[in-house]
Amino acid sequence: MQVVGTFSLLAFAAIVAGCHGGSASRDGSAAPEPDAATASIDTGGSSSALDASGAGGTGGVSRAGGAGGSEGGSTETATGGLPSTGGTARTGGTTGTPVTGGTTGTLVTGGTTGTPVTGGTAGAPRTGGTSGATRTGGTSGTTGAPTGGTTTTGGTTSAGGTSAGGAGTASSGANVRFSQAKQVIDGFGVSNAWLYPPSASAKTAVYDALFSVSKGAGLSLLRNRVPFRENPKNDDKFINKNSDGTYQYTANSDGSKTFSLNWSNWDLNNTSALLSDIKASGADYQVTKFMSTPWTPPNNSVSKWKVSDSYKTMNYNTPEVGGTLDPNHYADYADVLADYVLGYKAKFGVDLSVLSLQNEPNFQCTYESADWTAAQFHDFFAILKTEFTKKGVFTQLPNLKIMAPEFQNVKEDLILPTLNDSNTSDLLGVVGVHQYEFGKSNATSYTPPTLTNSLAADKRIWMTEFSTAAWTGDTSITDALIVARLVHMDLVVAEMSAFLYWWAWGAGNGCLAQTSGTQPKRLYALGQYSRFIRPDWIRVDAVANPATNVYLSAFKNPTGDQVAVVAINAGTSQVPLALTIDTGRFGALTSYRTSASENLANVGAVTAGTTVNVTLAASSITTFVGPVTP
In the chain, N or C: fewer CB atoms in 10 Å? Predict the structure, then answer.
């Protein structure tokens, strides 16, 4: 399929298979390097093994088998990886079952009471922000079955698979604790990095599938790439240069620099076109939060902003690959990032919500990348704070949050010095992680680690990249249930505030929406959350496992008069379940379901009551949404 310029079918398949431009550890593919004119790509390159320090499942998750670059590229199975612990149980749960090769998690009596989040994380010297919900108690353990089991007396099953009325309880107490607020949810989203728009004939269907709140998943968050690549063959040409190759900038009286940026860059033009289409859709597309990620700082043979490190000797034929930011250019990089966020609104017509500092700073690869240590992040945060203050970023963008580290796995090691320093901690607004320790091999046992230091510091945690690219081409309900369980675990166990899939659209299995043919079930599985749980909704406590193979989570809107309950039945038999609430009563709830034969289908209403009896269809995800009344 001709995508643009000289993109070939093989090249596009290699890109689609990659989780962030072709991560070799995931799929063995090379990085895409499309240019507005040539759209050429990297050619192969050897795959790397899974980061040995990352928490993994049994022996680490194998990520071989994706499409290779045009010269093939060898693939390697992930090696090692620390065994996952069994997870920390909290109130209502028991110790997590250890993953093979791990150790049993420790039971934490009562859970840890979170510190109330008041007013959001204050930027320096930003104001405002969204008030966080008070964390009360611990998160219910994900393996403890409620006392008493599930009773389902009363009620008759409707044609839609839910039952109305009836009495009975599913546990000795309410399984939806509406009064017990947990974390604020910032949204669910996807990335358009390196992506050209779908063809004119496919665009409406693809965009509806992703963003429509009436016909599709209703995604609310978009992640784009900051295009700093300066490969001589494929220069993004984002920073304008003088004839001698030096960057064009104006020196300011306060010592800062204002760089000349080319906002007509091909990748940014694609993002601009996407946002224009989203705006033109009206109220049916409700994308309200936007984040940007750089894969590398600027660097070329003249600027030399990056230097060699223990992982990579700098090669100026591919200056975007590897190396580490030279401390002598920390202020320069901070200034150009300030110019980017200040210019974002003028280019796109929306405020940037989150600026990430680096994609996967712990992963050495053959495409755009840079290495960062924990100490380097801390020192750069201090410089960033100074330069952003000089340039008025926090005054003009009071709600902007800075993200780090977008680690390859769910870990917080690289930002601990930043968290532990009051001068830098206030600038870190969101802790970003990716989830490539998760795969089909540990899909039923995986428990994400809890980032205790980040939560204790009242930082939002966003999972900003996950993909099924390295899996077989499964688009069935089996695949959807795996993705749904991952979302559940991230929200309930790890207390994350956002979940972003990797690529938005394309022809490969790594994409959330397909540009031709039937949409994969995983799109609708994510939509069971994203269409109904909108930005600034709040997760409330719930019995996470009210029945065998059932995963339950609950959420309320900011005003506290609407509820969304998501129930996953991963079993092969239908499960009767009584939903009970600890305060007020359920109004008439509408049920939406994804199963082998349904895609976010409206399957009927549930009669109002303090207790409502429903039946969860086999192998399904169901969302019950509606009012809560006194």
Answer: C
Say how many CA atoms lie within 13 Å of 427 toward its Cβ.
26
Question: Residue 71 domain-assigned?
Answer: yes
Structure tokens that stand for 114 in this block:
């979170």
- Of 492, 510, 535, which residue is a domain's last? 535
Same domain, 450 and 568: no
Which amino acid belongs to residue 330?
Y
Number of domains in the chain: 2
> Residue 502: helix, strand or coil by DSSP?
strand
pLDDT over 70 percentage in the chain: 73
Q: What are phi and psi of 220, to 5 degrees?
A: -120, 0
pLDDT in tens, 207-218: 999 999 999 999
pLDDT exceeds 90 at position 226: yes
Contact between 494 and 461 (Cβ < 8 Å):
yes
Q: β-pairing, 585-586 with 620-629?
A: antiparallel
DSSP 559-610: TS-EEEEEEEE-SSS-EEEEEEBSSSEE--EEEEEE-SS-SSEEEEEE--BS
- The fraction of the chain above a pLDDT of 90, given in percent, is 69
Tell me the backbone φ, ψ of residue 615, rounded to 5 degrees. Answer: -125, 120
Q: Are residues 39 and 179 part of one domain?
A: no
Distance CA 93, CA 108 (A): 9
pTM over 0.70: yes
Regarding whether 61 and 209 lie in a shared domain, the answer is yes
Distance between CA 10 and CA 264 in Å, rounded? 28
Residues 36 and 168 in one domain: no
Q: Indicate which CATH number applies to the domain containing 544.
A: 2.60.40.1180
Q: Is 60 part of any domain?
A: yes
Question: Residue 546's closest CA among 280, 246, 177, 249?
Answer: 177
Mark whether 378 and 344 lie in a shared domain.
yes
Q: From start to end of 122-200, where are the E strands?
A: 156-157, 163-164, 176-184, 187-191
Q: Tens of pLDDT along 359-379?
A: 999 999 999 999 999 999 999
Q: Which of 512, 535, 558 is the last residue of a domain?
A: 535
Residues 334 and 235 in one domain: yes
Average pLDDT over residues 503-520: 92
Q: Which amino acid is at 85?
A: T
How many CA atoms lie less than 13 Å away from 28 in the CB half-sphere? 18
Least-confidence region, from 131-140, 166-175, 376-385, 524-533: 131-140
Residues 199 and 252 in one domain: yes
Looking at the DSSP assignment, which residues form a beta bridge with residue 324?
307
The pLDDT tens digits of the residues spanning 516-573 come to 989 999 999 999 999 999 999 999 999 999 999 999 999 999 999 999 999 999 999 9
At position 583, the amino acid (one-letter code) is: T
Residue 69 three-state SS: strand
Radius of gyration of the chain (CA): 24
Q: Are 400 and 129 in contact (CB under 8 A)?
A: no
Please give the residue range of the domain that contains residue 164: 156-184+539-629
- Across the range 179-195, mean pLDDT stands at 97
User: By CB neighbour count within 10 A (0-12 exposed, 13-18 middle, 19+ buried), where does 143 fall?
Assistant: middle
If asked whether residues 426 and 359 sit together in one domain, one would say yes
Question: 130 in a domain, yes or no?
Answer: no
**For the segment 301-311, what is each residue's pLDDT rounded down to a tens digit?**
999 999 999 99
Buried b (16+ CB within 10 A) or exposed e, 348-381: bebebbbbbbbbbbbbbbbbbbbbbebebbbbbb
